[in-house]
């Protein structure tokens, strides 16, 4: 079976990761690429200044870049992936859904909307049920599904694994790679020999998205999880891979060994791009490290380490590749789930 | 008045900072420098491969490096500063104190001993009273005074300012510069495009030293503060300046503005190297940043920023220059306090 | 004596260096600052996101930013410094000169024009004679004087010192800091764990500007030096300080010691911002290094090292602070020369 | 066919690359690993702190590390690879050759000896003829073959391709990655925000090894090439990949297009680890870049770019992965050549 996909915002840093990940995908086939109007009509090779460290796929390189609008897309696409800037996404994605397209989107717009599934397949695949609510309320033939922010997705699978111990409150500090801000988001003058202690909107995203992801959907209605998350987000001079220090307060009092076991026992998703084990836990307290461990599971496995019992629960570190597991790969995985569950 | 000082471990990264800071000190005059036996007999210029970004002071450059032992030091020194490796400090510092020297030490040995003052002049100058206890118990003519670890000293003055609101529990994550590990402590292969999530012993130091610094000394007896500190310590690719994300749980419920006010109101120390205001608070959430702000107050002022009220208290960032305020400058300041209080 | 200066393009990376350098200048007083029309009317504090590691001078912070045009400037300015983008400079600088202003400019436009002095005070102060030619040909009351590109200015004083040995051909490779591209010129994604082997137009600038700087002016007419310069320019992950590897082919056959002597003997300029000795030569082959040596002479001294005789001449390294000696400081020095020689 | 190989100095940075490269080699099978006496008896997993970004091969992880001496090695090895420190190599390699082992070595000792082949399979495979001379003169049953220094090997294949135009003189400046100095060779304090303009012995290696590699072997006798090479070697803050700026003076006057053609026409070696095309030439002057291009051809292809005609010849850049093509991969390739030519 082949699923013909369109790639919205295909020339940016995340867009290029989509192209790289989809290059040898077992079922998805890139059939259209879009970018800003400036680039429309150019070849993908010319429009995207290719910066990924594998060669540009030749089949995509010669594709003509289209505008990002329902009219400019071919009719026979089965699925769209979106890494549009959120302001553009906010405008175009609803038009596309109304026109009947199913969109798996990495853009931040509407992530917290009550009728939009915000999904990680290993955490809350059943939230796709919200699509029914969405179609009813919005009168769409298509559907809009979101994946969370890269800093959220690094942590939430670990929280999902800990929820069995009564997840109460979380403090988290992030050390985020520059690629999370896009290709030009962080200048070298800002970050060499430095750390940036503020990423606009990032802390709020972690605090709110986590509660939605860990929440439940019953009869098409969303309930947020009650966990209280406080985040401090920092940008550091690494290229890829967000490392996060988590302090979790738990109702129960599991040992570090029990937490280790719980983290490694999170159920895998049976999807082509999903790692066989969602979370790998290191015994060595010096791991995970961004450069050494971000590519575990082709960039889709989350790593954890540094488990230590505290007075009120457990502290640990977690790591994920922010533009693969945290962005393009997250959308691809949601796309695979949409196919698996029959929405595509 | 001139105070003749000896510098123990003068050739390392912190030792060079001592030389730089003392070069134009109003009262302290370097009269002797020591290093490991390998270097004894060499000129300081040859023994210390000078790497600080100001020229080597000519007067010190031609001094002959001595061994680090009571016998090798001149008799007429008034005060010793120590940045010895802690294993060496553990052996030599007691011998020197027994021989009558007053030692202001940055080395980590004995920091938590009940009769050794662990002091930040703006926080707990009265802990010097422990010197009486120390002399009684150990039979010393000299005295041993310690400053805390660089990661601790960055945070504790801010906690001292918050204690008026009932300091209950603290979660802190650090983003520490490579100079904190000494000149050769972190290789370039380890840290370029990377973060190291573990610094041996660092988290325990922050958790225990904080309680001692914020504790009280009555009748020569030390009581620890009851605050519960949980720390996660990371090494990042910056040269100097430790940035820390603090989440403080407070009994009271001050506004961010009240916390801002409290931080800037911490009493200054009336000592030559002390900044006029110990803590500067930025309104701009993007500050403080290590490279831009570490040299405030000649590297002795602590910066804070990113204040935000949380459900249980306040979160904020703080920053200090780790080899000045956090090491050499901390010892110099304690030395000035020892002079001021008549111990020297 | 006070000289009232206007600063064109005052909010960029080089503009901020101008403000920093002029803050405590003995004679120059900033009386006006300009920026792009977007910023006009704002305070300098708001328009310039201040990123230099010393505090923003309070007197300048509250100045109102003006547009960059003759009409928008006060009449009583004695001198203008320009760090405009070259396309803007090409348009506005002639208008200002026609309106009677004397402009000392760091912008690259018209650097190679035959009637525009391209000057380094220690190398070719007499090229200011071209101002007469310029006024005659262009009918200006004012004057336009340029300093060379930052990569050129690092090398040319050393070549000037070697010219006594018959300078024949030069091969040079540069390792240039990111600040040379302006605050946003090099993204972190481009340069972390990387080197960029191409800087648009830079090699040609080094090859042509060198010949003009080393050339002669007789009777108001310029003759280029005959030296053949081949340059390879690279961007590396350092913040400030261009390091250059030079291979100079000479007609004569001086020893490394003679070259050392010649480099250190280049005549100093008797101007407030000029270093007492233009070039410092290190014996240690590991120096100069950008981070350790860029601030020698307050960023105005050039360093050299690694001298080694070759079959055809001499190889050595040289280093200068690219935004001080190589940009803002270069213009300030030319401004001081213009005052000294009576053009202002 | 399976060739049983021993790996001398298997735990260092280059040693780990050997293990990684040989993990799925079609013919070579690691049968023994050695390290310094301290590690002898430990498992490879414990002795080598594994830092490569692919998992440690399980089969090797459990091997017991041996001492590096003829007595400690099994008798049934067909070939040894050596990445010993040169002082150790100088002592042990001759003992091993005397004991009958064939050694393909990356260590720098004896590279310039007249009877030791210094070989790059695409450049001078016939230099293996020197083994006859070596055996005669030294009375060995085994053989010692060397590959050149990592900075040399990046450039020499390009020079070999240019020799048809009459290679006369070369100026080269290198921008070398930190991994070239071994895991602990460059500290983070040295290189962050900096460049090191000196690498001990490196320039001489480039200048002498190039002449041997490009020279000829007739009747078992070596003649050096007459090209005059002048090198300036710099360390920059990149992890892997040496970039070099070459200025080649040629007797003939080829166009840039002819040089492009010549570089891409260098004959490939028909060996398992050899790239199908030894040198790839970019038209884009911004390439090659270390991070983007070092892994071309699994780290074995050399890249070139930035071709520009000069008065006396051609300037261009070249790049190779310094620990693959420039070290472990170079030795493996020589090992494959030794097998192919029947020496093993």
UniProtKB/TrEMBL annotation, chains A, B, C, D:
Residues 4-131 form the Semialdehyde dehydrogenase NAD-binding domain. Pfam families: Semialdhyde_dh (PF01118), Semialdhyde_dhC (PF02774). GO terms for biological process: methionine biosynthetic process; threonine biosynthetic process. The keyword NADP applies. GO terms for molecular function: aspartate-semialdehyde dehydrogenase activity; NAD binding; NADP binding; protein dimerization activity. Keywords: NADP, Oxidoreductase. Belongs to the aspartate-semialdehyde dehydrogenase family. This is Aspartate-semialdehyde dehydrogenase. It comes from Halolamina pelagica.
